[in-house]
Amino acid sequence: MLKILIVILMASCVVWGIRFLTKAPDVLNAEIIQDGKLLRRVLLKKGDPAGEFAVEYKGGRNVLKTEDGKIAVIASDCPDKDCVKRGWLQRPGDSAVCLPNRLVIRISGKTEVDGVTW
């Protein structure tokens, strides 16, 4: 049992290392998708100044902030605020979802890692 736990722990460390120690690209795209439709693509570049915009859906509202090659949901009127707790999205494959407002933010771009499984 201890050997299995050690193997799982080592595999988790390798995945964590690949995920967090690889350098994020200088230019990324953030796809803002609502109710299954692409609303807009936001170009994220290192060194860009901060900017904010709101996305509304049937009375719901999310405020997104872009800054220095990353994006985050900084405010939402949804009850659990999981999208806000997600924090900054800055690597290809990062995403945040707000189910009540049917909003998905997904980062796309080139990466050196082929894939990571959770």
Q: What is the CATH first-level class name?
A: Mainly Beta
End-to-end span in angstroms? Answer: 21 Å
**Largest beta-sheet characterization:** 4 strands, antiparallel
DSSP helix count? 2
Report a brief summary of the structure.
With 118 residues, this protein is α+β, with helices and mostly antiparallel strands. It has two helices and seven strands, in the order H-E-E-E-E-E-H-E-E.
Structural features, described:
The chain has a single domain (25-108), classed as N-utilization substance G protein NusG, insert domain (mini-chromosome maintenance (MCM) complex, domain 2, Sandwich). It has 118 residues and is an alpha+beta fold. The strands form two sheets. It has a four-stranded antiparallel sheet. It has helices at residues 2-21, 82-85, and strands spanning 27-34, 37-45, 51-57, 60-67, 70-76, 95-98, 103-108. The longest helix has 20 residues, at 2-21. It contains two helices and seven strands; from the N terminus they run αβββββαββ. The model has no long low-confidence stretch (mean pLDDT 86). A hairpin with a 2-residue loop joins strand 3 and strand 4 (60-67). The radius of gyration is 16 Å and the shape is globular.
